[in-house]
Design goal:
The protein has 95 residues and is of the alpha+beta class. The chain contains one helix and six strands, in the order ββββββα.
C-alpha cells in the first residue's frame, strides 16, 4: 500500500483546518499555529492579508496549548518565514 505524503514546508508537515494552519511534527514538543484573520480577493483567489501566528506547547489538544510567542503578519509567507524560525529555535533549545 502506498503512503500518501502531505504538504510540507521546510521538511515539516502543514495541516489546514478551515482558517487555521498547523505547522510542525505532531510528535514534537512545540507546534506553530497560524490563524488567517482577514483575506482579500485578488484575481479570483482569496489571499491572506492578516495572519496571527503562535508558537504553542504541543502536549495537549492540537491548537490548545500554552502560547509562548505570538505576533501578526500581513501575509502567509511572512508568517511562515518568522514562524518557522521560532519553531526551529524552540525545538533546538530543548534537545
Amino acid at each position: 500500500m502506498a503512503v500518501k505524503k502531505g504538504l510540507t514546508y521546510k521538511g515539516k508537515p502543514v495541516i489546514r483546518k478551515g482558517n487555521v494552519i498547523f505547522y510542525g511534527n505532531l510528535e514534537d514538543k512545540y507546534i506553530l499555529v497560524l490563524t488567517i484573520m482577514e483575506t482579500k480577493l485578488e484575481k479570483g483567489v482569496n489571499m491572506a492579508t492578516k495572519v496571527r501566528l503562535q508558537l504553542q506547547d504541543n502536549s495537549g489538544e492540537l491548537g490548545k496549548g500554552k502560547v509562548y510567542r505570538q505576533t501578526e503578519r500581513d501575509n502567509l509567507y511572512r508568517a511562515f518565514d518568522i514562524g518557522s524560525f521560532w519553531l526551529q529555535d524552540a525545538l533546538e533549545e530543548n534537545r
